[in-house]
Amino acid sequence: MSNFVWCHGPSCHTSKTQDRIRGVKGSKVLRTRKVAQTQWNSGERYNMYSYFCSNGCYNDFANKYVREVIAIAPRLEALETPINVTREKVDSRFGDYMRTEITTVDNNGG
To answer: Residue 75 forms beta bridges with which residues?
Structure first.
């Protein structure tokens, strides 16, 4: 496996920064950045930092391809989590207030 991948940001190669400049005088280009594959973003820890050199490149990609990404696994109905809500009156030196506690319900018996 290679120790890097190219940034997947659609406009990474257009950002005018010193580290993107490549070539010799007369034929210089702006090049997409390399993303190093380290213990923090490879193997079982693949995440957005495995493919993008910055949050800006990630956001550019997400904004450009959001419809295609959502089409992979569209949400056709709302998700719900069963909860219990308990409220109790609390007396404090600053005044009384109601404390609300929300806990999730485990319907799987575990």
So the answer is: none
pTM here is 0.68
In this structure, of 10-19, 44-53, 77-86, the range with the lowest mean pLDDT score is 44-53
Residue 85: predicted pLDDT = 93
The burial of 13, by beta-carbon neighbours within 10 Å (0-12 exposed, 13-18 middle, 19 or more buried), is given as middle
Contact 7, 53 (CB under 8 A): yes
Instruction: Quote the DSSP letter at residue 3.
Output: S
Instruction: Give, as one character, the DSSP assignment of residue 25.
Output: T
Strands (E), the chain: 4-6, 21-22, 29-30, 34-36, 83-90, 97-104
* Residue labelled with tokens 């007396």: 91
Q: Are 13 and 20 in contact (CB under 8 A)?
A: yes
Q: What does the angle CA 75 – CA 78 – CA 82 come to, to the nearest 5 degrees?
A: 135
Q: How far apart are CA 43 and CA 29, in angstroms?
A: 32
- With beta carbons less than 8 A apart as the criterion, state whether 51 and 7 touch: yes
Q: What is the mean predicted confidence (pLDDT) over 84-97?
A: 90
